[in-house]
Structure formats: C-alpha cells, structure tokens
Amino acid sequence: MNTMKQKVIQKKLPRDAYNALKSVVGEQWIYEQRSVVETYSKLSIEGFSYIKKHEKDPHVLPACVVLPASTEEIQTIVRICNRYHIPFIPFTNGQVFCNPTTPDPTLIIHLSRMNKIIHIDVENMNATLEAYVDYGQLQAEAMKRGLWNGGSPLATALCKLASQFAFAGLWQTDLKYGLLSRNIVSVKMVLPDGEILTTGSRCMPKAGDFWEYGPGPDLLGLQRSGIGTNGIVTEITVKLHSWVGDKAFPEIPAGRPSLADVHEPKYDNPPAPLKNHKLYWVEYKDFKSQIKAMREIAHAGIAIGLNATGVYSAYYCSQTQDMTVERCKNKFFPEWNTYIILANTSSDKQIEYEEKVLQQIIKENGGTFLSESYKPEVFEALKPWNYDCIRHSTGYRMNRKAYLNAWLPQGPLSNAVVTSREWKKAIQTFGELDITDLGGIDDTPFIYMLQRGHFCLFETDNYPDPTLPDEIKKAAAYGIYGAATFIKYDLGPQLMAFLNVEPFTTMFPEAGPNGHLFMRKIRKVFDPNSVASPGRQVFTEEEWQQFPKEFKGLFNQMRAMQGLGAVE
Amino acid sequence: MALKDDLIGIAGKESVFDDEETLISYSRDQSFVNPRRPDLVVFAETVEQVQSVVRYANKTRTPVIPYSSGLNLHGGTIPRQGGIVLNLSRMNKILQVDAENWSCVIEPGVTVSQLQDELGKHQLRAMLPFGVPPRRSALTSYLERDPAVAAASFEYGNELIMDTELVLPTGELFRTGLWASGNTPGSPMGPVRAMVNRLWTGAQGTLGIMTKMNIKVEYLPVKRKVLLYQFDSFPEAIEPLRLIQRKEIGHECFLINNFNLAALLCKDWTVPEKFPAPMIKSGEFDTLRQKLPDWLMVLCLNGGPRMPEGKIAYEEEALKTIASSAHLQSYNGGQFESMLLGEMLRPWGILKKFCYRGSVHDVSFKTPLNKVPVFQKILMEFINEYNYPLQDIGIYVLPIERGRACHCEADFHCDPNNQNDVERVKNLWQEVSKRFIDEGGAFFDRPYGIWADLVYSRAGTYTQKLKEIKREIDPNHICNPGQLCF
Amino acid sequence: MTYYEKKPEKKFFEKTLEDYRDSIWGCARCNHCQNQWGWNIKSAEFSEICPAFHEYRIFPYSGMGKMHIARALLEGDFDYEDAPEVAKFLYTCTTCGACEMNCQRMQDKEPLQVNEVLRALFVQDGIGPMPEHKNLIKSVKNYDNPWMQPRTQRDRWARKLGIKDVSKEKAETLFFVGCTSALDNTQWHVAQNTARILLKGGVDLGMLGKDEICCGSPVARIGDRETFMDLAWRNIEMLNKSGVKEIVAFCPGCFRAITHDYKEIPKAEKLKAKVYHSSQYIDKLIQDGKLKINGELKMRVTWHDPCHLGRHLGIYDEPRRILNAIPGVELVEMERIKDQSWCCGGGGGVRTAFMDFAQKTATKRLQEAKKTGAQSIITACPFCEQNLGDAASKMDDGLEVKDLTDLLINVLDIE
C-alpha cells in the first residue's frame, strides 16, 4: 500500500464510556476498529459524506459502533451517552443523515440485530416490527396472509420501516395508500433522555396496539421524520390492508440470471399482471394533457397508484449505465407519461369498470396506451415496473453514479409545471453534471399523485460522478438554490418534502415562519443534553453561532439569487 | 376594569362582554364538567386580534380559552381556571374552495352546515361526523378528530387536514403544510418534520389557537345507494362487517342500535338548537324502538364522478358473494333510504336523541372491533347495578379504516333538571368509563373532562412529554389551562 | 456486453484496486449485497443472502463493507497496521457471489471481485491469507492438491473402472475429477458414480489420472494469484496436449476455474476443449436418449444450487430436469434458489479458517431445506457435500445430504 498518503484517523470514545457500553452489549457486539467505523461513514445519497471523504475529513468517522438486541439495551446505551456526553446516531442502512454532527467522538447504534417481525395481527390488520425489518420481509409475510402494507419506496424494498418513519416513506401506490405517514399505528422509541415513549393506544396499559392518535395531542406526528434527533425507534406497528394479489411473486418466465448473463433485460421482465392487478402505461402529446389526465384519473376515484416517471424508467428499466445513457439521449421513453395501477380489491369486476373509466379519460386527453401494438419495444422495456410498482427492487440503479441532492417539492399538481420550469433554470445556472435529470426527457419531473390527488410530490435529481468532488459540490449548490426556489415559488417549506436538516432549517426561517425556533423548543424537551445527532435537524442558538461564516455566505448568496434577503 | 379596557383596546367595544348572562352561558355546557365562569368573553375577527389577545394574555398571565361554536359538548370550552374566552365565531369565512385540487380553506367560525352548503355548489362535499351539530365549527371538528361517518373508508374518511395556520401560545403566527413557507396552501407536510400538524389535533386549544385550516373535500356523488342489514346482537355483526370492510366496499358505514335508529327516524323530534335540549315525550319513538331491529348496519355505496352506476354495480355484486357466507340479512328501509342518504351529508339527525331526556352523556372511545362485546358485557353489569334500563342506551359503532379499529359511543340519557337523575347518570357514566379503561382496555383518544385524569395518569412517558412540551411552548401556561393533563 | 465479457482491457488476475476506483467510490450501500432481490423474497426468515452479514451483523462482513474498506485503503485513509482486523473480514467470506449477483443487477459494481483483489493484495503484501490457509497453499505447491495427499493417490478411486488414461491413449471426453472427489475417500463414490454414468452413456471417457493437478480454484479464491496462475498454465497446456474435445468437470469450483478464471489470466493460452459440468453433460445424455432412466425412487427432495455452478455460471435447470425425470422423485424448492441460493458455507477458504462459521451457515441451509418437507437435500459439489454433510450429522432431524449421482446411479441400470 502507498503509505505516503494522508491517513484519516478516527477519534475514540473515553475508555470508561467504552467499557460501560461493552458491559451492556457484550464484547462481541461493540467495535471501534478502524475498518469497521469506515463502513459506517460514507453514506448513500448524501453529498456531504462524499465530499468529506474526498477531503479526508475525519469528521464523518464515528468513534465506535454498538449493536444492541433490545429496547432495554438501547435505553441503557442512551443513558450512558447522556452520562458521558457522547453523541449517538441510530443506523440502519446508512442512506442519509447518519454521519456525526459534531467533532466529538460519536457512537453509532446499529440496529441490525433487531430484525424480527414481532407480530402480525390479521384480524385488526397491523404488524409490529423491530427496527431492522424491511418492506420486502413485511410484504412477504403479510401477503401470505392476504394482507400487505400498501406499498414500497423507490429506495427499494430493503428499506427498513422504522428508519423510513424517521425519514421519508413515499410509495408507488400512494394514490390510494397515501405515504407511510398514513400507515403507522404506533412507535416505541427510546428518547434521547433515556425515557421510553410509546404512542397511540399502545401507551395505555390495557388498550392494545391498534390506534394511532393521541391520547389528546398527537405525538406520533411530531416524532415522525426526526432523523434520529428525537430518539430511536425500536418497534413500529404499521397498518396492513387487503391484498388480493399472489401470495408470493411468481417466477419470471425467462428464468433467473447468473453472473454470466445478469445484464440481459429478459430477467427483469416480470409477467403482467400480478393476480388481480393491472399496470397501464400512457403517453401524452404534451405536459398539459398529462397533468389534466392525471387529475381526472385521481378524481375518478380509480386506481391504487398513479405516477409519472420522468427519467426514472431510463434507470430502473436499464440493466447497464450505457443503456441508461443511450435511452436518455435518444428519448426512448415517452417524455410525458403516466403509469396507472388498477386492482380488484373489492370485486373481480373492479378492474373492468376502472379500465373503462381510464380509457375514457385517456381518450379525452389525447393520450395513447402503450401496448404490444403501440411502441411495443418501449412497452417491453417498461416491464420491470410490473413488479416494481408493488415491491420496488430496481431503485438503486439510480445510484450507479451518485444520486444526490434531489429536489422534492410538494403541493398541488400544478406545481409540477413550476418545478419543471425552475429545475431547468437551475440547470442553466449551474450547468449539467455527469448525468443531470433533464426532467424526464425535457419536462416531466417524477410526479407522485398522493391521497386521491389532494396533493403531490415531485422529484428531480442529480447524478454527479462520485470520484469528482467538484461535481458533488455542484450538486450541493443545486440543493441550496433549490431550497430558496421553493420558498419563492411555494414549492414547500423544505427541500426534501418530509423534513428539513440544518443548516436549511435555520437558513430558511420563512418556513413556519421561524420553524427553527419552534423546533428548538421541541429539541429541548426530547434531547435536553444534546446527545441525539445534535444540530442535525435544528441548531441551538450556540450551535448557530458556531455555524461557519463561509457557509452562511454561500446560503445567503443562493437566497439572493431568488430575491430572498440575507439571514444574519 | 383593566382587563376589559385592555381587551377593548384590542378587539373593540362591540367585541368584549362581561355581563352576567354572557359569563354564565360560557361557564357550562351539557357535560358533567363543573361550571366555571370566565372573566370575560372576547370576539376576535382577525388573526392579528387573536395574536394580540394571546400576547396580552402572556403579559398578564391570563388564561385564554379558544371557542368556536362551543359545541364540543364535553366541556372542552369551559374555562377551568377562569380567564378570557376567545370567541372565534365571527371569523367565519370560507376563504377558498379549490375545485381543482378538492380542498377548502376555512376559518374557525365556519359551521359544518355552512361548509356543506357552500361545497355543494361546487359539486363537492366535506366528510362529516355522525351526530355533529350543524352549527359546530368545522375547523374544530376536524381539529378534534371527530371521526367522519365515512371513516370506514381508508382513503376518504380519514386524515382530512391539509395545511393549517395557528397562533402559538406565545403569540407568533405559525403555519403547517405547504402554507408554512408561502402564500398558498396545498399539502400537509412540514415545516421541519412531515406530520408536525398533528400535535395540535386533539389538543383542545392547549397548545395554540388554530385560525385557518385547509381541509380535504371530496366529490359529491350524483349516484349513491344505501344498504341496510339487520342483526339481533352485535357479535353477529362482527364477521359480516369484517368481510365487507376487507373487500373495501362502500364509504360510509356504521352500526346503530334500535334506540339511536328510532331517534333518527322519530318525526316528533327535531334537531335541537341548544344542548341540553327540551325533553319531548314521543309515543312514536317508543313504538319505533320496539319495532326496529336491535341492530342495523348502514352501508352507503357512492358512485364516482364517471360511470357512477358501474362502481355501485360491482360493489353490490361483491356484496352478494359475501351475503350468504356472512348470513347478511337485508333490512327493507326503503322509506328512510333517502333520509339516510341525506344524513351522510348532513349527519345531525341523530341529535334528535337529545329530545329523549334533554341531556346525553356519551362514553366514546376506540377499540378493536372484536372487543366490542367485551364492553357490552361490562355495560350490562353496570346498568343492572345502577338500575339504568338497557333499552335507554343508544349505541353507535363506527368502523374505521376498513375495520382495523372502531369508534364506539354509548349514550346515557338524563333529565338535566332532575338532580337525582343527573347524579345517578353521572356516577354510572364515570364508573363505566373507568371500567372500560381498566378492564376492557378502551382507548379514549380524546380524553375530555374526567377522562383526562383516567387516561393521563396511566399514559406514563406520553403524559410526561406532553407536559414538557406544554411548558416549553406555553411557558406562561395560558392556553386553556386545566384541560387534558395540563 | 455480459458480466464476463466486459472491460476487455485488463484480465481479472492482473487487476488492482485502482481498476475498481469508480465502483468502490460509487458503492451506494443499497444493501442488496446482504439481502435477496426484492421480487424473490418469500418470507422474512429467509430474506437475507450474505452468510457473513447474517451471522455477524456488521457491515465489514458484507460486500458493501469491503467496497468501503477498499476505497479507504486505495486512498490511504488507513493502512494495514491501523486495521489488522481487515484480513478476518476479507476471509470470512465464502466468495459465493450473492453480493455480486445483486450488485451487478442493481448497480453494475463488483463487490466479490473487489474482495478477491483485496485478498490478492494482502497475499502479495504478506498480510494474508489467514494462518490456517498457509498449509493449504503449501500443499498445493508441494503436492498439486490442497489435501496434503501424494500425487500417486490421485487415481485410486478409479481402479477397476476402466477409464482411459489420456497420457497413454486418446479419448474424446476427459473427466476432470477434481482434488476433493479424487482424494477424499468419503467422496470417491461421487467420482465413481459420475464415471459409471458417463460410461453407461457411451462416452469415450478418459482422465488425467495421477497427472491431474489442482485446477487452482482454492488458491485463486484465497488470493494467491502466483500459485494459481502457475497451476492454470500447466493445466491448460496439459489439457490442450491431451487432444480431448470435451472436458467434463464434476466439482463446480474446477468447472468455474477452467471455464472462466483461466480466461482471465493475462497471456494465457486458450483452452481448446469445450467444458461442461457433469450435471449439464448427463442432462444432455438423457435428452439425447443415450441414457435411459429405468427405475423409481420414492423420495421428496430439494435441490441446493452450488454457488459456482448456479449463481456464477447459470446452471440451474439441468440438475432440476434430471431430478424431475426420475419417477417417484418429488422435487420441492427452498425459498432461496438459483441466483439467490444461500451458500453452503464451505467455499472461499472459510471451511479451512473458520469452521464454526462454515458449519453455522450450513446448518441454516439445512433448516431451510427441512422446511420444505424434503427428506434429502441434493447437490453436485464436493465442498457443499462435505460442509452440509458435516452439519447434517450433528442435527437430529434425519435430513440426508446426497449427490445427484447418488440418485441417478440407482435408476440407470448400472451394475
């Protein structure tokens, strides 16, 4: 090895803290070796951690990793952290927001040993899961019982539901099932002060775990999307819904790939449909028709899923990056499109009825269904969605290059047009990256119709080359500019629809307004000793004073580009 | 007096009242909560006035109790520690009906009947709770999580709040949802966290005063159909209900017993204006109560905006496949089908039940469907002990989200002018509530009145954290103090 | 372009970490290296795919973890003396390729290759392999097999079978037996069965006999490129010189080494013969009518896909076709099959250095097999049979581990 390069040295925990933690989990389940902490430091979709790796900044290295097996162990660990002032971070897959937030030696609490489905209550349609259970596991078990959770995220079926509670939870089928937010019955959390909180009916000794709100003011809602700053979810109870599809996904007729032929598209071509489900693809003449049709479909009360895919199909449905680039260049997939998922939830005749309604709407809006006779090569290429629309698996194809700094605005469907317009301005301002989401092909951001069309989420992304720090920084600029754009054009109070992080929270006080001041109070309640990823979601006044001036300057520069005043 | 003068300075002379009659009228409602007079009543007409009153209250450490229509009926607006009742009923504009995105922005003074009438003009409707008084504040009804009669439908009857605007206990304006950072509402998420707006639901104004709300509204179907099924006992209804809901058939769905059904149908009675209501003897009611089935399930099928018959047709066909395995026995209610269809939109007919004795005290809670018989059993023990006739109890069971839970209401009736009767029913009601919690595991997710003590003394860390939040965001303890656990 | 054909500029056995720079920087920690492909998951219990991560629960044991470690080593973020634990993480990996399977499908990256390149680097720098492997390498160098057995023992299994010695007479088809089947007398029956079956099928069969040497797969997997390449060059020369048109290998490790790894050696000669796995070849004989199944076995069995045979090279259908062709045999599938097969735990040098872990992994596989209701778990790999067999002998539930040929030999009218 080249020993001339600069090393990155991790900090270590004080020995008495380390020994105290070791006595909780046992020697087998505590690690502070250099290579171990390395594997908890570069994250999936966070530009910050990539930049810090390029800069050889030890900031992103945790000091130590522990693996508890129970809520009680976690509680003891958290109390130790309070005693010794050790910041801690709960960790599942390591997608985003799990780097240390301070220069202090930080503890990672990896929840990988807590991966059991505790209970599936078929009668009352819910499932209680430990923190590391993922969507694929839950769906597999629930579907055997004629139930399912209602969807899966583009971050794939391997996402853990508990960590999605702390972060996002956006599904292909949110037209009907409406985000993870709509599907939580309760959580059990170890709070940063070491208390254990259960929410909803579960907090009452005899009521059982079946109802999500209250009692009285609802804390479940407050705790969601706290990204570990408000405690560690150790158990989550989620709602289940009727599932009328197959008990297990049928095998793909082409068989299974091997390393010898893994890139052949045929292995990604599931049969259509899953039992009692049908997936339709429609292309439109222009953006306006697409928007109108989407609204009509949502309002017609049909379908369980309704989305426009933008550039995503070029990724998800392409087995190699070369195919992706080729398809983007040649505009292989329709610029303006939607996919619609129908299901026979109530009756064998439901799809028949809904199909008639769908056809009527599409005809009125000048759309055309893709089929074996219309653009059959495109129709064939879109087949991965046949399964992905229910249990998404190809999602990380977007990360062949780094996938960073997404814009995730929200609002009425008309915001799709605003998003598209402003994103194109951002591209003109900052230039393109290795691959820039040109909004589908030209215009269409990914559009999720949510909760029967009452509101939507949109997404546009960047894919910088992860080996080039300047590209990553450029992607970061998109992010900051995006937050300012959102404020200006009513695209949402946070860059990522579900939550804000610092310095965005304090640098965009318009959200609330002064949402950061309100959240400081909440932080004080839950994390009085500032041990739970301190400063990740909201700064205290002291932390704000320490925020580097050059970053404040950068943010204010981006704010000014959208005519927003400086934040002092 | 300084308080009055100061408030006149904020709201104007025509908006501040401290006369005896007014104070008494705000000191009580039809619940068992002990009356307590406010110091005075202020009508606010703008958000700025609300903010000013709240700031003033902080400066002088005077409690502020928000009041929209006062039709909580559970003591939520009784000023436990005196102070200012802040009446928001003059803030009664429907600010926006977004026919494109099916949402509607309302102020706290907008009543449910006003809202439904206005939405009807746009071929839209609000999802309202069964038994909501027509003059109830729609905003408060949503805020307090009154369960919509369509709550059985996961998509249409639940989580109806989008953006909100509120005044925090320290007087700052705060918004949630898309509104949090801009001028237009249009989504429920944010700021900072996705579902932060839920903190203020079920809070009875103890954590802030809501001044606007953007709610989801739905299409007003042109074709609807009501189906009725009768049962001799509630346990018989559980499996059919489960099968129907598992198939996700219909929107509105509820079960009521013969008492409530008779009240709903009784033509001798009308929906009272005030509560308690005047007692009206009715032979028709007594006859109906004897004649009607013990239990009736009401299921409403709604056609969509397009080809509405098609949707109703496939749902009816699905019901046929369930009918035989579930032993569904249809009830021919043809004569009141149109009445029931009307009730789905304007669901206050059941309030006629107040005419029976004048006062109704419900025990309302959430439970899993299969546990309802447990509560029936506990109830039977008590009514025997208290010599309260079984036939005088009205019961309403509302499946929620396709049957994962249900909202139960058991009504006890008493004559508010008969102190012995009041005392008896009060004791019964309190004992039943306590036993429901301790033995049956009833979940009072909206712990009004004495339920608050029963619930919060058992809720451990949840209670503790609520109190800590209250201390932080309402440091002077002025927002409706004495309610819940505060 | 397929996985084995892309990036023609450099052969695998000359690649360094630098050649994987894009990949190891770009590892997006999707975690598919630890879990089954989402569409294939049938239960929570059997949803994980990486035996090492499944057991130890921390990331360095996963494909993703090694990518991150590789990045740090490449960039000099830490060095060997800073992280002596790395060798253990590298070698507690059976090289089953499940990580690479899903990663290729998802991200087009190469965690298994990165692991093997790291191993090669460690061996080159004297840090690896594990101490327990040193004897294995010494044996290969001294005896041309990893079992410390003299070369003269190599053909003992074949006495009385009448197989041609290709050094003495020409044959069309060469049976490449493999070290384990030839030298472990508990595995002789497999080699003997295979030979008998091929002869019954009318194959003009030869073998290298005492001249056969290790294919090199064990040392390749451990990271000793020099020893491997030496064996490979010698094998290619010997096999080409033999003049055979076909080579039938029984051991999937040999099969993969000869069909794939040899092509990845810089400047190596091309192998002239066409190479088959024995299950492929036997399936072909049955399809062509040259072998006739005549008999019945009443058994409920499940098939374990050996990693090198299945996931690496795509031979899934042939063994299943064979089993389905035997009257009375009922084939029931486990949940993790084919490309998502759960490794037996025996490969990559794990059995040598971490026997406990190897056995735990095998036990999990047997538990999965038991859940199907099968009486026997059938496979076609000597390492799988050794490792699963050892684990089965410690379990009480009567599940038998058998080779595919153990069944065939009873239904082909072979004396």
Strand and helix map with partners:
The complex is a heterotrimer of chains A (568), B (486) and C (415).
Chain A lengths: L14 H11 L4 E2 L2 H5 L8 H8 L9 E3 L4 H14 L3 E4 L15 E4 L6 E5 L4 E5 L4 H10 L2 E2 L12 H6 L7 H4 L6 E7 L5 E3 L20 H5 L8 E8 L1 E2 L34 E7 L3 H13 L5 E4 L3 H5 L4 H9 L7 E7 L6 H15 L3 E2 L6 H6 L3 H4 L15 E4 L2 E2 L3 H16 L4 E2 L9 E5 L4 E9 L5 H21 L14 H4 L7 H12 L14 H6 L2 H13 L7
Parallel strand pairs in A: 2-4, 3-4
Antiparallel strand pairs in A: 1-2, 5-6, 6-10, 7-11, 8-9, 8-10, 12-14, 12-15, 13-14, 13-19, 16-20, 17-20, 18-20, 19-20
Chain B lengths: L1 H10 L4 E2 L2 H8 L12 E4 L3 H14 L3 E4 L16 E4 L6 E5 L4 E4 L5 H9 L3 E2 L12 H6 L17 E7 L5 E4 L32 E8 L1 E2 L4 E8 L2 H13 L6 E5 H8 L17 H9 L3 E8 L5 H18 L8 H12 L13 E9 L4 H14 L8 E7 L4 E10 L4 H22 L9 H7 L4 H13 L13
Parallel strand pairs in B: 2-4, 3-4
Antiparallel strand pairs in B: 1-2, 5-6, 6-10, 7-11, 8-9, 8-10, 12-14, 13-14, 13-16, 15-17, 16-17
Helix pairs in contact in B: 1-3, 7-8, 11-12, 12-13
Chain C lengths: L20 H6 L24 H6 L6 H12 L11 H6 L6 H9 L4 H14 L6 H13 L20 E2 L7 E4 L2 H5 L4 H13 L4 E3 L9 H6 L2 H18 L3 E4 L2 H8 L14 E4 H10 L11 E5 L13 H9 L3 E3 L18 H4 L1 H17 L4 E4 L2 H13 L5 E4 H5 L7
Parallel strand pairs in C: 1-3, 2-3, 2-4, 4-5, 6-7, 6-8, 8-9
Helical region count of chain B? 14
- Counting helices, strands and paired strands, the structural category of chain B is alpha+beta
- Helix vs. strand class of chain C: alpha/beta
Give the fraction of residues assigned to helices of chain B.
25-40%
Residue ranges of chain B: pLDDT <50 for 5 or more in a row?
A: none
Largest sheet properties of chain C: 5 strands, parallel
Flag low-confidence runs of chain C. Answer: 1-5
Number of helices of chain C: 18
Strand % of chain C is 5-15%
Order of strands, widest sheet of chain C: 1-3-2-4-5
Instruction: Give the overall average pLDDT of chain C.
Output: 95
Terminus-to-terminus distance of chain B: 28 Å
What would the principal axes of the Cα set say about the shape of chain B?
A: globular
Average pLDDT level of chain B: 95
Biggest interface goes to:
A-B, 102 and 103 residues
Biggest beta sheet summary of chain B: 6 strands, antiparallel
* Radius of gyration over C-alpha positions of chain C, nearest whole angstrom: 21 Å
